[in-house]
Amino acid sequence: MGPHRVDRSVPAANLVGAVIAMSQAIPQFDGTSRVNPLTWSLQGVVPNPVVPGSYPIAGFTWVAMYQCYQNHVNGNNPFIWLRTWLDFLYNSQDAHNILHDSGFAEVPGAWTTEIYTLLNDPANGQNQNGNGACATIAGAY
Asked: What is the pTM of this model?
């Protein structure tokens, strides 16, 4: 057997190639589809990007959490923690630097808009008040 050939037409996995590939994933939601996790996962992957320089397969990493939680005995609420973390992740230059240093790209603006639209919709609930129903809480967005 002779030496193996390396296909140089496939770009190396890197931050730039992922950003280029994921720029092709444009969220298309309405009030009904936005609440369906399957709709998000089907739209958040680009298996055969066509834009030059994009990595051949790309997709988002998902974090799935409920929006309705009962407060912990110490007063903390996981939904508020999630919102604080998302605000840091999407709006902080420090977070962007950490992502880039680790080889990850930040979530494109169109997707962060959809995420906040989902989380801000009172019809989706924001906090479990202990009796099984969600109710808006102080400080919710």
From this structure: 0.73
